[in-house]
Structure formats: structure tokens, C-alpha cells
Amino acid sequence: MIAHLRGTVATVSLNAVVLDVGGVGHLVLCTPGTIAGLRRGAEAQLATSLVVREDSLTLYGFADEAERDMFELVQTASGVGPKVAQAMLAVMAPDTLRSAIAGEDHAALMAVPGIGRKGAERIVVELKDRVGPITTSASGTVASAPWRDQVLEALQGLGWSAKDAGRAVENVADGPEAAAGDVSGVLRAALRTLSKT
């Protein structure tokens, strides 16, 4: 897999850029938001996902790894291919999309071209336990302590669902271990809350 490309932007079109990497021009399909941040002749780095089909190899490019990871995750839902996944990220930022799936917001998902009621329901059913929780601060912006992702990943690696792991992390987020940024302490505290349920 090609994880990222760094090079000079040779051309920019409505849905793609050509990135010149060591004299080789790579055509990379991108969302409008990603393209808006690129300028012809400027140096750029894109997180990428290579989609292999019988008749083609297609590179999709993203402003950051969070976008790429969400692009790859939503494609694991049946009926969602790379074009629909890219459309989802064109309409919503990764955290907004994660919130829509975790919150079972069918209307938000149906705002994406190519997704109807049944498609939105299927995406929610198949992905809501896999997208991970979204936490918001009082100002409404996404807040993520540095230990949070590590603890969530560890709990899911131990076999708990993303929903249960997220609930456990929320239960211990105000504890002394979290305030100190003690990852192992937070993990132990979260495991204690899970063992009580």
C-alpha cells in the first residue's frame, strides 16, 4: 500500500491532482476540500489509499490520515465503494461523519449523494460499533486527551466493542489517572468499570 506521497503539485483539476514525485506524475483523486488546499507548483504531502480493481489501480488522496482512515473504514460497509466513501468525506469531515454514524443520524448520511434511507441504515448498523466514540468539550469542539485513543485501542484489542470501550473511557475521564495522563492507570480504571457491568 502507498501510505502517502510527497512532491510538487503539477496540475490541479476539479476532482484530482497530479503530484510529481521524483519525476513521476501520480494522478490522485481528492475531495474538493483537499484540492482547495493545494496550489500548482507548491510542495504537498497527501495521505493516500490505493484501490485495486481488475482493470485499474486508483490512488485517492487526503489532507490527513484521519480522512484516509475514515475513507477506508466506511468502505467496509456493504454497498459502499470508493466513490461513495469519497463523497461522504466531501460532505462531512471525519469527526462529523463519525458522529453521524455513532449517533445513528440517518438524515445526515442521506445528505451524501448515492446514499438513500436503506443505505444509511445499513452503514449505521455495520459501522456504529467500529467508528469509536466522539467526545465534545463545552464549546462544542472535539476534545481528545492524548491517552484516550491508546486506551480505546487497548480495550478494543482486548475484545470489547467500540461502544463499550467508549463508555468505559467516559466513565473514567474525570478520574485522577486521566488528569495525570497515566495511560496504564486509565486503562486499569476502565477495565474495573467494565468488569462491574
UniProtKB/TrEMBL annotation:
Location of the region described as Domain III in the Swiss-Prot/TrEMBL record: 144-197
Family annotation (InterPro entries): DNA_helicase_Holl-junc_RuvA_I, Hlx-hairpin-Hlx_DNA-bd_motif, NA-bd_OB-fold, RuvA, RuvA_2-like, RuvA_C, RuvA_C_sf
Keywords per UniProt: Cytoplasm, DNA damage, DNA recombination, DNA repair, DNA-binding
Keyword Kinase: no
Domain Helix-hairpin-helix DNA-binding motif class: 72-91, 107-126
Pfam families reported for this sequence: HHH_5, RuvA_C, RuvA_N
Localization annotation: Cytoplasm
Leader sequence residues: none
Family named by the database record: Belongs to the RuvA family.
Domain notes: Has three domains with a flexible linker between the domains II and III and assumes an 'L' shape. Domain III is highly mobile and contacts RuvB.
Subunit-structure text: Homotetramer. Forms an RuvA(8)-RuvB(12)-Holliday junction (HJ) complex. HJ DNA is sandwiched between 2 RuvA tetramers; dsDNA enters through RuvA and exits via RuvB. An RuvB hexamer assembles on each DNA strand where it exits the tetramer. Each RuvB hexamer is contacted by two RuvA subunits (via domain III) on 2 adjacent RuvB subunits; this complex drives branch migration. In the full resolvosome a probable DNA-RuvA(4)-RuvB(12)-RuvC(2) complex forms which resolves the HJ.
Summary of the function given for this chain in its UniProt record: The RuvA-RuvB-RuvC complex processes Holliday junction (HJ) DNA during genetic recombination and DNA repair, while the RuvA-RuvB complex plays an important role in the rescue of blocked DNA replication forks via replication fork reversal (RFR). RuvA specifically binds to HJ cruciform DNA, conferring on it an open structure. The RuvB hexamer acts as an ATP-dependent pump, pulling dsDNA into and through the RuvAB complex. HJ branch migration allows RuvC to scan DNA until it finds its consensus sequence, where it cleaves and resolves the cruciform DNA.
Name of the protein in its database record: Holliday junction branch migration complex subunit RuvA
Species the sequence originates in: Aeromicrobium halocynthiae
Gene: ruvA
